[in-house]
Amino acid sequence: MPTDDTTTPSPFHAGERAVQARFGLAERVERRGRRVIRDHLIAQHREFYPLLPFLLIGMVDDEDRPWAGLLAGAPGFVHSPDARTLRVDARPDPGDALHPALVDRAAIGVLGIELATRRRNRLTGRVRSPDAGGFAIDVAQSFGNCPQYIQTRTVTPRDLAPGPVHRSTSLDAASRRLVAAADTFFIATAHFDGSAGAGADVSHRGGRPGFVQIEDDGALVFPDFQGNNHFNTLGNLLATPRAGLLFPDFETGDLVQLTGSAEIVWDGPAVDAFPGAQRLLRVMPETILRRERAMALRFAFDAFSPSLEKTGVWGTA
User: Quick check: 229 and 36 in contact, CB under 8 A?
Assistant: First the structure.
């Protein structure tokens, strides 16, 4: 139950609290976090997950590298049999980097997002009892997220057979085209220090097409805009500077998954030059998977988020 009782452990780990303190927000965010971050799913969120045709997950592999992945199914494939459990009736495909990571008691981050309405919920927890049909999650933390930077799309199933998986250490031409044109991607991070806020996490990132820059050395640089000030992603990166990125191709169903080292660029001319950016994140890919036709879903674009009106792209920054 959310609480203002400061005698209980903070819902944030040391990395998150350090970023909050950097911006003079620690006390305020701590109070709010104790009210809105719960150790269970409230009724509204239990009713939300069965509406979804896909789910984002974040986990670490056996080398402690974070990856973001996407699972899909008919609405109802994600459901909550009780307030402390989320059941997912799907598993990562064999070509997914997260396929071998899905083991009992593995840390997992979840993002439920409904693109048509911009609703989303995040939770962290532990995998329980994976079987051939899916797995359960013991909820550790759950909270709602604001709708900023989400482009609305209508999502429907389609008949699409998975294609080959291309593995590399640098972006190939097809991956570069996808990343350079992206208006949406997902980022997984993790930090483990035994505290209440530790674990794996996955989060949404949105911007105008072209808001992710590919540098000459292959690094990906993108702006970090104003959010909920929990700084879950930044706190994880401050403590454990590694990230996994997932770029969906909404036209073809392809997915680009990558993992690598990460750096926070707190300030400087590049940050100042990008409209709306509060800082930049720089990820150097180490392993990249381009999975053809990995999403058996059809995405019909509707509208860009109104939050993007004050943001830019690298070509004009």
Answer: no
Token pair for residue 78?
């994600």
Longest dimension (CA), the chain: 54
What are the angstrom distances between the C-alpha of 288 and each of 98, 162, 188, 204, 246?
Answer: 13, 17, 14, 19, 10
Q: Chain-centre distance of CA 94, in angstroms?
A: 21
pLDDT in tens, 151-166: 999 999 999 999 999 9
**DSSP structural state of residue 9:** P
Give which of 272, 281, 274, 276 is closest to 310, Cα–Cα: 276
Q: DSSP string spanning 198-210?
A: -EEEEEEEE-STT
**How far is C-alpha 197 from the geometric centre of its chain's CA atoms?**
16
Q: List CB contacts of 194: < 8 A, sequence separation 6 or more.
A: none
Amino acid letter, 62: D
Could you give all domains of the chain from N- to C-terminal order, each with its CATH number? Answer: 14-310 (2.30.110.10)
Confidence of residue 269 (pLDDT cuts 50, 70, 90): very high
Q: What is the 3-state secondary structure (H, E, C) of 213-243?
A: EECCCCCEEEEECCCCCCCHHHHHHHHCCEE
Over residues 34-60, the mean pLDDT reads 97
**Eight-class DSSP state of 38:** B
